[in-house]
Amino acid sequence: MDFSEAAARISQKIVQKGQDASRIDVKKIEGKLKRLVEEFGVQLAEAERSVTNELAKEFNIPGIGTGGSAGPAGAREERAISEIAPGDWVTIEGKVVALLSPPSPAIAQSGIIADASGAIRFVAWAKANAPKMNDGGWYRIESAVADEFRGVTNLKIHSGTSIKPILEDRALVPSTVKIADLRPGIASVRVKVMQEWESSHERMLQSGILGDESGTIKFVIWKEPGKEKLAVGSVYTIYYATVDEYNGRLSLNLSAATLMKEEGDIVVSGGETEVRGVIVHIAPGSGLIKRCPVEGCNRALSRQNYCPVHEIQPKFVYDLRIKGWLDDGKKTYNLLLQRDVVESLTGMTLDAAKELAENNPLGMDEVFLRMRDAVLGRYVVCKGREIENRLLVKSCERAKIPVGEHASLLNRAGGAA
């Protein structure tokens, strides 16, 4: 493998920080890269970060290095997991609290390991031939290297890493954090299940909203053997959830987490949003719908009474909902109104909608059309939780259009219809 390009990139970074190019030995850099890759089995990108970090410390350059121990020389210093930064070579002692399905044949094992200070995801490369670790076991991992993926620090086990089981079963009590204090990585929380959403993917077991005293956050659980759905309205302590970040928004992946249902309640932070504007669109799937009757499912069925999980369901349950858009003149919100709000806003009850569908040639389409006529183009005030540009409406009522906004709002409504 040719290491000259990577060595040149590292050299250029050091020079750009004001160092004299004559002080930088490119051949020496190539040698360090070669040793890390060929002797320790480290990926080239990881090796490049590690050598850059080491040189930054050597030349006392801020803004490149991570400040951690770099290279095999510092790799045997035992570290707390919470102190690990990308580019560090470390030794840790911790408990494997979850094992994950390897995403690639190049990975022999993946999971989460924790100590009293925190938790980190680990990956063992297949070519490292490292001994497999057991879920719930304690281990001493020596000379592992940390890197960064999507802003999260991970621990990589390579051919130069030593894994030794710790025979004693030590106490490990993870501390929980508030939703408002979450950062990308691994965390434990105590939360209340506020809402369940319809699954948008066949591999998704459940998604929805969790809340505590500090705020709310989206969660997802992917289908895996032994995984169960959370009960809406219940309180859980969730250990070692993965905190992901996408487009500046955090979410919790609970697929590998340990879930413990608790008694009691949590007063969830208000976080209520009030939006005033015109309903400019009513989406298909609104009106009278059928839901899967299987306990814990509640998914909307197709016109053929088909559930994507439980297939044909002749003993379906009727429900009402409205999905649409509301425009306040500056921003368009994705609305979701459940049965009680739909009944209040349209004046049509569930029983009335069922009767209309059963006695009209258009069936359920007639319910959709009448509800659309009742709310489309109406100026309303909606209150609820705004999650990722979706307003989960708790109440909605008609209101008078403020003076001066009538023409502009109706023009926007006309353009969206």
Descriptive report:
With 417 residues, this protein is α+β, with helices and mostly antiparallel strands. The chain has 4 domains: 4-58; 73-166, Nucleic acid-binding proteins (OB fold (Dihydrolipoamide Acetyltransferase, E2P), Beta Barrel), CATH 2.40.50; 179-262, Beta Barrel (OB fold (Dihydrolipoamide Acetyltransferase, E2P)), CATH 2.40.50.140; 272-416, OB fold (Dihydrolipoamide Acetyltransferase, E2P) (Beta Barrel). Helices cover 20% and strands 38% of the residues. The protein has helices at 4-16, 26-39, 44-58, 339-346, 350-358, 364-375, 406-416; strands at residues 89-100, 107-115, 118-125, 138-149, 152-157, 162-166, 185-197, 204-212, 215-222, 235-246, 249-253, 258-262, 272-282, 287-291, 306-307, 311-312, 317-327, 332-337, 379-387, 390-398. It has a 5-stranded mixed barrel with strand order 1-2-3-5-4. It has a 5-stranded mixed beta barrel with strand order 7-8-9-11-10. A 5-stranded mixed β-barrel has the order 13-17-18-20-19. Helix 1 (4-16) packs parallel to helix 3. The N and C termini lie far apart (60 Å). The model is unreliable at 65-71 (pLDDT under 50).
Compact summary:
Helices cover 20% and strands 38% of the residues. The chain is α+β, with helices and mostly antiparallel strands.
Question: Can you tag this structure with a few keywords?
Answer:
five-stranded mixed β-barrel, elongated, 20% helix, OB fold (Dihydrolipoamide Acetyltransferase, E2P), alpha+beta, 417 residues
Question: Helices, strands, pairings?
Answer:
Elements: H1 4-16, H2 26-39, H3 44-58, E1 89-100, E2 107-115, E3 118-125, E4 138-149, E5 152-157, E6 162-166, E7 185-197, E8 204-212, E9 215-222, E10 235-246, E11 249-253, E12 258-262, E13 272-282, E14 287-291, E15 306-307, E16 311-312, E17 317-327, E18 332-337, H4 339-346, H5 350-358, H6 364-375, E19 379-387, E20 390-398, H7 406-416
Parallel strand pairs: 3-5, 9-11, 18-20
Antiparallel strand pairs: 1-2, 1-4, 2-3, 4-5, 4-6, 7-8, 7-10, 8-9, 10-11, 10-12, 13-17, 13-19, 14-17, 15-16, 17-18, 19-20
Helix pairs in contact: 1-2, 1-3, 2-3, 5-6
